Amino acid sequence: MDSQWRFNGTALRTLMAQERAQLMAKERAQIFSLYEQGPRKRLFVDIGDENKDNDEFISDRFGFLREKPQPRDSALGTKQRRTESRRLRKWVKMLNNYSKYYGSKKFQQRCFKGIPSEVRGKVWKLMLSVDIKKAQNPGTFEVLKEQARLHCDQVHEIDTAVHWTFRNHLIFRERYGMKQRALFDVLVAYAMYNPEVGYGQGLSHIAALLLMWLSEEDAFWALVQLMENFGGAEFCASSLNHGAQTSEDDWAKK
């Protein structure tokens, strides 16, 4: 009798696991399909106070939607543009002889002052050796995306994170739009690339920031390099193992 109960219990658990796997597979397919179809009715994320109209917000030079600013002193704006122009010329000079400047005190100081948007993507790719990593793994990104379509068990969490990431930025505002799909693809690919970490809290904002300046595949390999070479993977894995919820600020301090 006891053996029969044990058999029935094992069979029931197996059946429940199979049903759960089928439900997850169905949901995974549905979510992938939504991103592939794109924004059918041009759905936009609400970015502001419910008491304010969307026309009360404008985009700043980085693409973030903000309340309409008050008039500024034109002299301050002119001074800022001149400063940024000088800074850009200095960065172009450094990039022409990158191996000489990288790691130097001057390079670090200029990083702290801010990398001009015109060269930011190029600088990030050089600093993270993105092209080298990508050349060492040809075709890997596309393979990981296909594997995620069949096996990723964090699709629901990733889709939810994508929806809430930089809701006030122009390129991520359109639900299931091009950049939201790119962010989704980067995150599911990374979940397959590093299953020990998978998707962790805050990764969507890091990946989205990379996507503002890099292509989809370059952003993926930049994320890989950040996680592998700057302690990100170990920090996230440790936090998950201890059941802790980590913030982006905590990760950045690492």
Describe the structure.
It contains 13 helices and two strands, in the order H-E-E-H-H-H-H-H-H-H-H-H-H-H-H. It has a two-stranded antiparallel sheet. The chain has two domains: 24-71 and 128-253, putative rabgap domain of human tbc1 domain family member 14 like domains (Helicase, Ruva Protein, domain 3); 72-118, no CATH class. With 254 residues, the protein is mainly α. The longest helix is centred in the N-terminal third of the chain and has 36 residues, at 2-37. The protein is globular.
Instruction: Quote the average pLDDT.
Output: 83
CATH class of the largest domain: Mainly Alpha
| Share of residues in strands | under 5%
Principal-axes geometry comes out as globular
Q: How many angstroms separate the termini?
A: 57 Å
CATH superfamily of the largest domain: putative rabgap domain of human tbc1 domain family member 14 like domains
Strand-pairing-aware structural class: mainly alpha
Share of helical residues: 55-70%
Instruction: From the 3D structure, determine the CATH topology of the largest domain.
Output: Helicase, Ruva Protein, domain 3
Q: What is the H-and-E element order? A: HEEHHHHHHHHHHHH
Q: What gyration radius follows from the Cα positions, in whole Å?
A: 23 Å
Number of helices: 13
Strand order of the largest sheet: 1-2
Number of domains: 2
Give the quaternary arrangement of the chains: single chain
> What's the count of strands?
2
